[in-house]
Amino acid sequence: MMFRLTITSIILLSLWAQLGIAQNQSKEDPTIAGGIEIHAAFSPHGYGFGGSYLTGPNERQTIWGLDVFQVKDPREVRLSPKKETNIGGYTFGKTHKMWVINPSVGRVWDLATRSHLNLLNLRLGVKGGPAIGLLNPYYVQVLDSRTGEETIEAFDPERHNASNIRGQARTFQGAFDPTFRVGLSVKGFAWVDFSSSDLFINGMMLGIQADVFPQQVPLLAETSQIDNRRAFVTAVLGFMIGSRWSSRDDF
Question: What's the pTM value of the predicted model, to 2 decimals?
Answer without folding.
Answer: 0.79
